[in-house]
């Protein structure tokens, strides 16, 4: 037999064997998904629509505070740890900021649950503005929800950001990167 | 290699793909400190009174405290950081200013003002330089925060008839 015929004969058999193997692996999970468990894939997401923002000082003396930028973060999760999760949302900045001169601060303004009433919810870790460093700072904890869906989050977390001068600052500007993280606690 | 990879993927049960335990959102934050240049006083208008009208007589002295602030001063040495001028000359009267002891309210690396003339300097309509700064370095060297006291008085350059003579005194702070 020529090589072409050999391939036609055995190549087709390998193809069907491979296909059978593929479906034999896939099928049980697929059937279970439809028929028995109804399991949704884990979701963990945090989004905002603000993007980059500017904090501006009109005065340069120690203690001066910049304008406040409010950012609303949409958080969704269905695989949170049950009960309280400390530091479920945390913030950190890049190390480019001269922390001796300018302090970057965040304050959780509130959380609005958009999901079922028995979903878990977020609450601020600290009251008022707290310094955010490149080591990270806990912004919000997950509080224990009231029911079986305590492991789900669907809501909006509003955070106010500002900068404060710790000593007189020369005119100029600096850019930092702010990272806000949602962790499911697992 | 490609076929092996495909086999691994197809053998993973649906719903058991490993998900990350955390998700991030990031912002670029610009922090801007605006430039400021400010000179203020709380004395307002004042009167200098002559006790005598003859040539060479001096009026009373009015001390005014000026608060000066800037965060964008040139790093170079600069004369006339503080200067003064009058809106119109007064016939027979010289207005004079003498910078007293300057109190620097900033740090040691901030701008340190010095008086430019020892004793009284006559202030005319063209402007008279009263304070200067030396060369400074770094971002701290762009910052000025000080209190500058200036004694103002008038001297009769001829015999004066009784009456009020008014002019406007303008004191200026510059950063470059």
The percent range for helix content of chain B is under 10%
Whole-number total of structural domains of chain B: 1
What is the CA–CA distance across the termini of chain B? Answer: 68 Å
- Give the helix tally of chain B: 1
What best-fitting shape of chain A do the alpha-carbon axes yield?
elongated
Mean pLDDT of chain A: 82
Category from helices, strands and their pairing of chain A: alpha+beta
Strand content of chain A: 35-45%
Could you describe the largest sheet of chain A, including whether it forms a barrel? 5 strands, antiparallel
C-alpha Rg of chain B, in Å? 31 Å
Keywords, separated by commas or semicolons:
heterodimer; A: 186 residues; 2 domains; five-stranded antiparallel beta sheet; four-stranded antiparallel beta sheet; B: 176 residues; Immunoglobulin-like; 5% helix; disordered N terminus
Protein described:
The complex is a heterodimer of chains A (186) and B (176). By secondary structure, chain A is α+β, with helices and mostly antiparallel strands. Helix content of chain A is 19%, strand content 42%. Chain A has a 5-stranded antiparallel beta sheet with strand order 1-3-9-5-7, with no helix packed on it. In chain A, strands 6-8-4-10 form a 4-stranded antiparallel beta sheet, with no helix packed on it. The termini of chain A are far apart. Chain B has a single domain (33-43, 50-173), classed as Immunoglobulin-like. In chain B, the strands form 2 sheets. In chain B, strands 2, 3, 5, 6, 8 and 10 form a 6-stranded antiparallel beta sheet that branches. Chain B is elongated. Residues 1-20 of chain B have low confidence and may be disordered. β10 of chain A pairs antiparallel with β1 (22-33) of chain B.
Helices and strands in order:
The complex is a heterodimer of chains A (186) and B (176).
Chain A: H1 3-37, E1 44-48, E2 53-57, E3 69-77, E4 85-93, E5 102-113, E6 121-124, E7 130-132, E8 137-143, E9 153-165, E10 172-183
Antiparallel strand pairs in A: 1-3, 3-9, 4-8, 4-10, 5-7, 5-9, 6-8
Chain B: H1 2-10, E1 22-33, E2 37-41, E3 62-70, E4 78-86, E5 93-99, E6 103-104, E7 113-115, E8 121-123, E9 128-133, E10 144-156, E11 169-173
Antiparallel strand pairs in B: 2-3, 3-10, 4-9, 4-11, 5-8, 5-10, 6-10, 7-9
């Amino acid at each position: 037999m020529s090589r072409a015929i050999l391939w036609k004969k055995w190549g087709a058999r390998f193809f069907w064997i491979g296909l059978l193997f593929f479906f034999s692996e896939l099928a049980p999970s697929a059937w279970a998904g439809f028929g028995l468990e109804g399991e949704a894939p884990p979701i963990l997401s945090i989004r905002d629509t603000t993007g980059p923002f500017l904090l501006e000082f009109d005065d340069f003396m120690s203690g001066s505070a910049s304008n406040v930028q409010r950012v609303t973060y949409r958080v969704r999760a269905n695989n949170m740890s049950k009960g309280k999760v400390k530091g479920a949302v945390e913030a950190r900045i890049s190390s480019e900021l001269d922390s001796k001169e300018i302090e970057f601060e965040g304050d959780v303004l509130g959380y609005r649950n958009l999901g079922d009433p028995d979903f878990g919810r977020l609450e601020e870790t600290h009251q008022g503005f707290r310094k955010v460093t490149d080591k990270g700072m806990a912004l919000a904890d997950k509080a224990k929800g009231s029911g079986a869906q305590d492991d789900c989050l669907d809501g909006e977390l509003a955070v106010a950001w500002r900068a404060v001068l710790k000593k007189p600052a020369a005119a100029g500007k600096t850019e930092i990167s702010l990272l806000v993280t949602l962790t499911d606690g697992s | 290699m490609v076929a092996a990879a495909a086999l691994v993927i197809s053998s993973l049960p649906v719903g058991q793909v490993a998900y990350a335990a955390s998700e991030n959102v990031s912002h670029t934050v610009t922090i801007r400190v605006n430039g400021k240049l400010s000179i203020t006083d709380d004395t307002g208008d004042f009167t200098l009174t002559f006790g005598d009208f003859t040539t060479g007589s001096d009026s009373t002295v009015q001390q005014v405290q000026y608060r000066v602030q800037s965060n964008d001063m040139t790093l170079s040495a600069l004369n006339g950081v503080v200067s003064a001028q009058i809106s119109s000359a007064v016939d027979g009267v010289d207005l004079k200013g003498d910078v007293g002891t300057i109190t620097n309210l900033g740090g040691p690396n901030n701008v340190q003002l010095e008086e430019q003339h020892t004793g009284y300097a006559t202030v005319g309509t063209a402007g008279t330089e009263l304070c200067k700064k030396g060369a400074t370095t770094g971002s701290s060297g762009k910052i000025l925060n000080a209190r500058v006291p200036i004694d103002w008085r008038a001297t009769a350059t001829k015999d004066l008839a009784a009456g009020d003579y008014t002019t406007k005194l303008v004191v200026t702070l510059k950063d470059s």
